[in-house]
Structure formats: C-alpha cells, structure tokens
Amino acid sequence: MISPIHIISISLGVAFAIGFLGKNSNKLSAVIMLLTIGILTFISAQWAQAFYFGNQETVQIFTAGYKPPFSINLQIGVSESIIILLINSIGLLGGIYLFDTLVKTGKNAVVVYLIFIMSLNQVVLTQDIFNLFVFLEIQSIATAGLIVLERNRNSISSGFKYMIATGIISSLLLIGIVFGYYFTGSLNIADFIQANMMLSKGGAVALFLILASLLLELKPFPANGWALDVYESIKPGTSAMLSAASASAVLFALYKVLPAGNPQTFEIVLGFGLITFVGSNLLGIKQTNPQRLLGYSSVGQIGLIVAILGMKPFLGEKFTFIAIAIFISHFLAKAGLFWLSGIIKADNIRDWANLRKKPFLLVLFGTFVFTLIGFPPFPSFFGKWELIMQLSQSGYWYLVGVILLGSFFEGIYLFKWLGYAIKLDNVNLPEFNINWKKIIPVAIVGVLTYLAGYYSSFFTTGTEHFEKFFVPLFFIAILYFLDFLPNFVKNIIAIAGMSYYGYILLPGLYETDLLRFIFGAIFIVGGVLTLIAGFTYKGQRKGFHPAALMMFAGLGGIIQASNMIEFFFSWEMMTLGSYILIIRGKKSMPHGLSYMLFSLAGAYLILAAFGFTFSQNGISLEALKGLAFAPNLIYGLLAVGFMTKTASLGLHIWLPGAHAEAESDVSPMVSAILLKAGVFGLIILFLSMGAEAAGQNSILYLLGWLGAITALVGNTAASFQEDAKKLLAYSSIGQLGYILFAFSIMTHLGWLAGFTYSINHFLFKAVLFLAIGAVVLRLKTHNMYEMGGLIKRMPFAFIAVLIGIITLSGVPPLSGFAGKWLFYNAVIEKGWYFQGTIVFFAGTIAFLYSFRLIHSIFLGQLKDNHRTVKDISIWFIIPIYTLIIGIMIFSARPDLILKPIGNFLMPYFPTDALSWTDTMAKTRLGYWDGTWVMIIIGIMFSLIFAWLFILSRKATKVEQFNIAYSGERPERPETTHMAHNIYAGFNKAVGFIVTPNISKFWASASENLDGAAGYFRRIYNGNGQTYALHIIIYTLAMYLMIF
Amino acid sequence: MDIINKLLFVLLGLFIILNFGLFMGVSMRKIVARVARRNGVPFYQPWLDLIKLYGTRDQISHGIMFYLGPVFRLSGGVGIFLFMPLIFGSQYFNNFSFAGDLVLILYFQFFGMLGMALGAGEGGHPYSAIGISRGLSQFTTIEVPMTLAVISLGIQYNTLSISEIVAAQQGGFQNWTVFTNPFATAAAMLSLLGAFGHSPFNLVKAPNEIPIGPPTEYHSTFLGVLQTNAAILHVIEAVLFMNLFFGGAVNWFELMLKSFLIYFWSVFVGVVFPRYRIEQSVQWFLKVPLLLGVIAIIIYM
After folding, report:
1. Mean pLDDT throughout A154-169?
2. B27 in Cβ contact with B44 (< 8 Å)
3. ipTM of the complex
4. Which of A139, A263, A793, A815 is paired with B122 by a 20 to 30 Å CA distance?
C-alpha cells in the first residue's frame, strides 16, 4: 500500500516538475495534473478498500521518523480514507470539468489546482494543528488563485473579499494555536484532546479561537457574505470544488478538533450549525441567481453537517452513517449542480428552462434537487431518516422541528427552481453547447447519487426487506432507459409490469389483510385502467411512464410496508412520482410547486411523528399503537401530514390547480387513486389510535368537524366553477371531506361508510375524470360554457358521466346510495347530528355541480365548432366502462363487498355492526336491500319506458333550434346555452362560504416568508469591510455567548 | 300472499293515489281561484287534460335524454310510492317498503328530479336550465331543516323505518309526532313548503316569468307523463309527512283526509305570501326552519 505521505510528495513533485515544462505545454501539464490526481485517487481508494474490506488498522505516519512535535504527524483511518477518496475523486472529475479553462489560463493555473487538491488532502490527514493551519493557508491561497480563473470585476473583487475574510480567520486560528501550544505544550491534536483545555479559561479561549476559525471557514450564517459573493462570481467549476471538496476537508478538520472540547462545546457547534442551516435556507428563498442560490444552499447544507458534528455525543453509533449520508448527498449534488450551472450559463434561475432542451440534463438536475431535499432513493433520505430517529430517541424533539423547518425552506427554492426548469418557456433562450468534458463529471456524480442511495439503505434501521421496494425502482429505471421507444410500446410494458405487480401482491392480501387488499386494488387496478387511457397519446410521451410507475410503486409500497421507514420511503416515492406527473400539465408549474410544498411539509410532519414514535416503541408500524408519551401530539402530526394528501380544508389549495391542469389521464390517477393514499394513512393512524376505544378522542372530534366543513366548502366551490376539471377537483376535496368525516366517526357503521365512500369515489371519480379528460382532449378547452349539446356527438361519454354523477350524488339504485344510507345510520348512532347535517347539506349541493357538469357539457345547445367532433377515444372508453361494470356490481350486490369489510372490521369495531339476511342489510335503526331496490327500480323504469315508447313512438325528431322561443328562432347556440354563472342566485345566497380566505392566508404566509428573506439578506451589502466586520462581530457574539 | 296479488294491490293503490292526486290538485286550483275571486276550472279538468295530452298526435322529440326525462320523473314518483307504506296495519297496502327505510325515500326523490333536469336540459331551452338551476339551488337548503327533523325522529323513535315510526304513533293523537316532537314537525312542515313548490317558493316554475320552468319544452304524452307524476308525487309526499308526523293512516279515508290537509297547508301559505327571489328563498330555510331543526335535535342531546 502506498503511504499517504506520497499524496503530498507526488503532488509537490509534479507541481514543481510542471514548472520545467515548456511554454506551449499547457495541455500536457493539465493531462499530467489529471493523471496525478488519478494517482491520488487510486492511493486513497486503496486505503479505503483496505479499511472497509480488510482489517486495516488506523495508521500513524511521522515525517522524517521523529515523534511530534518535531515531526508532522499524519493519520489515516477509515474516515480519513473515505474523505480523501471523495476529495480526490471529485478533484479528478472537477479537473476534467475545468480542463479547458485550466489549459486556456496556463500551466500556472494547473499547478494551483493540483496544490489545491493536495492541500485538502493534507488538511484531512494531518494530526498537527500548526500543519493544519499551514495547509489551510495553502488552500486559501490556491482558492484565491482559482477564483481569478474567471477574470471579471466581480470575481476579482470577490477574490479580495475572500482574502480579507480568510486573512482574519487565519489570524484567529493562529492566535488560537499559539495559546493552545502555551497551555498544552504540544501541537498535536491528540494531545490537545488529552489535555482537557476546557478546564482552564485560557485553554478554553485558545480552543474557542481554533474552533471559531474553523467554523468561520465553513461560512456560517450570517458571517458569510464574502463566501456568497465568491460562489456567485466565479467559475461554476471552482464553486463546485469549494462547495464540495474544500468544505469536506474543513468539516473533517472541525471533526478532528471538536473532541478537544466538552459536551457544551458540541452543543454550541450544534447551535451555530443549525442557525446557519435555517437562516441560510430562509434567505435562499429570495435568490434568483443560480450560483448564488447554490451558495446559500451550500452554506445551509454545510451548516446542517456542522450541526450533526455537534450532535455526535447523542447520535450514538449511527453518527458516522448519518454524517456521511447527509454529507455525501450534499457533496455529490452540489458539485453536480454547480457543474450544471456552468453548462447552462444562465444568470437567472428562470432561464434554466433551457436545460430542458437536453432532457438528460434535466433528469440529472432533478436527481440533484431531490438528493438535496432528501427524497428516496438518495442517501440523504436515509441519512435524514436516521438523524430524525436518533434525535427523537435522545429526546431532542425540538431539534427535529428546527431541522425539518430548515429543510422545508430549502425545498421552497429548490422546487421553485426545478419547476422553472421543467415548465417555463424556453423557445427564446440561446442554444448551448455540450462539451463531453463537462457532461461526464455531472453524469458520474448523478449515477453515484443513486448508488450511494442504494448503499445507504443497508445501514439504516428497518431496511432488512428493502429489496421489494428496490425491484420496482429497478424496473422503472429500465423503463427510463427505454424512453426513446414509442408511447404504445412503453405503455404495454408499463401495464404488464403493473399487472404482474398486482398479480404477486393482491391475491395473498385478500385473505390476510382486507384493508390493504382494498387499497391495493384501488391503487393497482386503478393504475392499470388509467394507464390504458394513455394509449391515446401518440409519439414518445417522454418521461410519463417512469413518473407514473414511480407513483404506483410508491402506492404499492405503502400497502406492503410493515415498518415506518418502509412506509415513509414509499410515501416519498409516491410524492416524487406524482409531482412529476402533475407538473407535466401545460399550465401546471405553480400547482406542481404548491403540491410539492404541501406534500413536503406533510411528509416532514409524518417523519417527525415517526421519529417520536420510534423513540418510544421502535420502528414497526405497530409501534404507533399504545404510545405512552405525547400520543396526541404524534397523532395530530400524523393526521395533519396525511391530510395534506387528502386535501382537507386548510391544506387543500394545491389540489384544484394540480388536478385540473394535469393531463387527461393523469387527473384520474392523482384524483381517484392518489388521494386514497392519504385516506390509507389516516386509516392506519386511526387503527393505531385504538379503533373503537379511541372513539371519544378529541382529535377525532375535530377531524369530524373538519371533514364536514371540507365537504361543504369543497362542494360549494365546485358548484361555482366554470372549468370542468376544476369542478371535479373541488368535488374531490368535498368527497374526501366525507371520507375523513366517516372514518373519524370511529364506529362500525362509520367505517363501513368510509370504505364505501372510498371505493365509490375511486370508481366514479375515475369515470368522471377519464370521461371529462377525454372530452377535453377532443375539444381543447376546459370551460364548460364553451361546450354544450355534446350528447349528440359523444353518447358514450355522456352515459359514463351520467352514471358517474348518479353514483356521486348517492341517488338509488346505484352504489352511491349505500354510502348515504350508512352515513345516516352512523351519524345518528354516533350522535354527530350537526356535523352530519352539514355533510348532508354538502350532499345536496353535490347535485348542483353534478347537474352543471352534465348539462353544460352534454345538454343544451351544441356549438358550431363542435358539430363534427368525434366521440371520446376508445382507449378512454375501455377503462371507463370497465369501471362502470364495477359500479354496477357494487350497486346490485353491495353485500358482496360490504359483508367482507364488515367481517374485517369486527375485531376493531365489534359493537353495532351491520347484520345481513341475504341481501338485506340491517342496523339498529333501519334497513336497506340494495338488490331489491335495483330490481324494483329496474323493472319499473323499463315498464314506464315501454309505456311511453308505445305512446310516443312516432315523435318527430326536431333540429337544434326548434324550441318554443316566443315565436323567434335563436341564431347562436352561445346565447341560448344557459351555462355561464349558472348558480348566480345560489352564489348570492351562500357564496360567502367559499370566500378564498384560506388561499389568502397561504398567500400572505408565503409573501411574509419572502419578505423576511428579502429583509434579512440586506445584511449582505457586497462590501468587503462590512463582511470583515461581520466575521468579527460573529466571533465576538460567539465569545460572549460562551463565556 | 303471492307476488301476483301483491302486484295487483300495488297497482290498485297506485290507481287510487293517482286519481286522488288529480282530485287534490284540482281542489287546490279551485281554492286558489276562489281566493282570487275567480271561478276556476271545473273539477273534471285534470282528467280531461290527461286524456288530451295522451291523445295528442303531433309529437316532437329533442333526443334520447329528452325522451328519458319523463321516464325518470315518473319512475321517481312511482318509486317513492312503491317504497312507501300507505296504510298502517294493512298487509295489502305496504307496497315494497321492505326494500328500504326512510333514507331510501329521501334519496329516491332525487331520481326523478335528476332525470327530469337532464331531459329538460336536452330540450335546449334556456328557461329549462334556468328553472332547474333555481330548483336545485333552492332544494339544497330545503333539505337542511328536513334532515335535522329526520335525524330528530331517528333519535326520538330509535328507528328509521317508516312503518315503525307510524307504529310508535298509534294509540291516540297525543302520540303523533306533531305533539311529541313539535320542533321537528315545525321544521319539516316549513321545509315542506319549499318541497311542494307553491308560492313563496315557486320561482322554479315561476308563472309569468319563465312560464313553466323545466318542462318548457315538454308537450303531449311527455307532459302527460309529467302531470301523472305530479299527481302521484304530491299525494305520496304528503303521505310521507303524514306517516312521519301525523300518526299515519289506518284506512284510505284517513290517508286522504290527512294528506289533503298537509297539502293544503302549502297552498294556504302560497295564497297568502308573494314569491321570493332565489337567493331569498335559499337563505330563508337557513333561518327559522334551521333554528327549529337545531332545537329539535338539542332537546334530544
């Protein structure tokens, strides 16, 4: 094995040798430099392998054979080997990326780059504090050299600011080292740790200065204006090295020195790290320059890692994994993002829409963004999960809150940015060239994030059976690489995959767990049916299938999950997939963002609740039962978290836009199917709360009211929509309100009603959204008043919508009535009379929008431009009529479905069950025989129809405008079609119910956040002296807080 | 009793109800006319109308849903009839009430309304759509006091079966719901005013404004079917209120008398009060009737 000392000797040797090369040897020197870094990478990889796979012990190396303090002491252990491997590999990739720049600038630049990498290695390896100082200085000087690779006013001035700042910082460090030597008589870090410097005040001050300067090197908020200017103005390739490589080295230096302090020292580091994390991410919200934004994000992420270093005393054995997982995510993603920004060369994040011209780059961009936020399957997901679990376990619940808040802030700007890249118009943006030297490093770190994520899963608690979650992902990855195939082929593959998934998952579940079977069937059967509609689309339909399948894999995953991490992993996969699906719609950018932010916030609440649960009962989903400590807090967090997905009132504002603007076959996916994930979550929660025993819990009481009011507001708002898909979207809000209400009742009948509603909503909302979506595809408009009279052109769509709205409104004999009947019984039994009345009121309002939907589109007057329009596509008709068969079966034989559900509920809700005699259902209060009702109504309807048919068989068919119109003949269908603002009177009477106060509330919340970010970032005025002052004030403040 | 017998009695009941409905309708017209100091139509007018409508030779159709609208409407009326127990204690006139309870009847009302609305919609006349939009708007809040009253009954009698509710009111008028649960009765009787669609809540058909509302385009046999339904529906809805609040009926005479008086109540109010605008009527049901409904529940909490 090659001694790490040679990392320095080789680099120095080559650096000197390059100087001897001739004048025109820039390219040669750059190649030599890359080879050298390649050798460094090899050396570090060799060590890392020895530590990881072999039984290599930590090695101490003393230069010139003397003991310290006369020699320099290097140490290489498992952590060192990993960190230098990371630094050298990123150095190699960064070198490739910067190759052309370095060649152009000359061989001096090449030398600087090599020295930069070498100094970082040494900062990691050295155990000598003065040596650390020296190499930090070398690193600073080399950085300054790299900063001026970009030669313009801004970069030169930021280079000066950088020199001023690092100058002050190194003086602090030097003073600290001098005092430290005085107190310990050694310069070796190990001796510092031994010496217990904190015992004497002088020693404490010395240590303080050392640690403070290392912290300052890491650009803590708010004393980091100089660093932000640097990030913004220099070559992105250099920024990548600063953010990834330099930060790793300095972080490691901090990690080495930190044990010299006492527990309080750790807490202080933790505190300052968190301030940086939250503060920097808050200010990031206001940024529009991509590099500066990345600067904020870098600072924030590094702050989080600093905080994690500070948490070492209570993270226990998981500390290393957490730190590395989160660090490596930052490391890879930030390098990748900076590099991307060098490729795209845009000053405003809005111009990143250009990235879309090369879809491959967009996927990489998305990968990095999701990595930074901590989505699966990336390492940060596992790291953050473990961090939250361990923090909760140690009782630091408030830290969980702070960390999740900071992450949420980061999500705001990163997802805004991603949305711009995916959606904004890019026609007028300049073309950009792709240079393989720039693409390869990005692609490599992109692939590494996936590998690192997969690898991270092995170290996380509760991931013993994760293969069942990775297999679908693998399938999706293959599908992604087949994205060049036509939509038709990919759709067949996707449907085959989903069907197989359903085939292995569902049959077994029916016997063992009916709850999961029902939701699994909704997710997978629904998924297959809605995928069939996708055959309508021509061409390649890039990116659709991986996203859709990811959502369905997530949905399938939450069904299969047996512990909290499996559940959360799947939950986040589902969010990720559905986000991409939703944002595909033409005007979906803002809706995609709000969907994502609500989902993210919801997921964090769930994560926190899982953490608090883990700290008491372990990781199994069963752990949610019987919580001894703060159960209501945990249940409340979970309820709110799940309700972001069910779009209950207050958390619903993302839904109408997201569902309405999505593509025609995506709307039913995200409405009929995806919303049920939230319902499933709530069911798991309610069962954990203790089923019937929890019936009197005040959370449930509140949720019941919330559900009722959601139903009322959702349905009322739906009645006032002019946009057909928005109408259906608001209707979903209302329907989910019923479902929330029904499950909150927590009785046998309430739950039966809840299941009935869930199944029905799946069936009819899929029918309606598919049918309306297909109509929209034909007509190219969502506005109902622009339609009309389409029954003549689209009879199949009309019949589908008719059956859909009859089911929706609960009119017998279709299955919607089952829900209403159960509801009446459940409400009276439970005693929730007033809430119940509100729900029934909402139910009658459903007639308003149902009528509006069918009348404005299919009845009334046909418009001139629709006279030749064709019926909806066969690919929509197939799934629609399959679902209608489902509705008919459920309507005619409700006992087939309700009996097994009743049996399933018996252990949880033994009292006041539904009793069955044949097809007759009985409760304590009433009775209902769905089959007989169907038969009676069917026969009667047929007889009356036959009678009228005999009487009026000779009726003359008349033309469109042949109506009793005061002797006039209407000229235009537009003026004769009563469709716009059809419920004006109702609006006048009760429109106040739907005043958009909640949207206003969220709008003002986001404005205030934006305003706060804008206000605080004024501290960065661009003046080097001010920045120097910041550093001094920061240090002073730290000093005053500590001593 | 075999099924043929059952069907025959059902048809007999339907025949009685239809004719009684026509009679009741014309009586009310006479009453309204007399209040306005007119003579009004002769008593046999509705029968003549029906014969004329069913006999009309010229018929036009706007399409399949236009055709199905009256079918839905009459199925709605007959359906409620079929699910309604008519005469308490009679094994002949309880129809098919075994198939469902009060909730079924409440929701089956919508069947006819919905079909009618759709059929009229295909007629393509804007007046139809205006009438429907008003009707639906008004109906939303009419249902609120009614729902509260029904829930109150559910609590009071601990059942949602109409037969059992009637059974519980037997043994003298003091057992009728109107005396045992006056608030629920009051709320329901006010909601009835809206359901029956006389003034002040007749904006749906609004004579002299949008001449006959939703059925504007209907004529001949179609209108005949609609009028047949109207006759049945008026009686059967009155019978529902009779069963729920006024002790039901043990014979046909009692049924006719009570349903006549219940129906008369809405006509009586109608001739006294002028018509509301739609937003006024929507709000009206959310005031006193709602309050009464709430009280009807609070007394049982």
Report:
1. 91
2. no
3. 0.96
4. A815
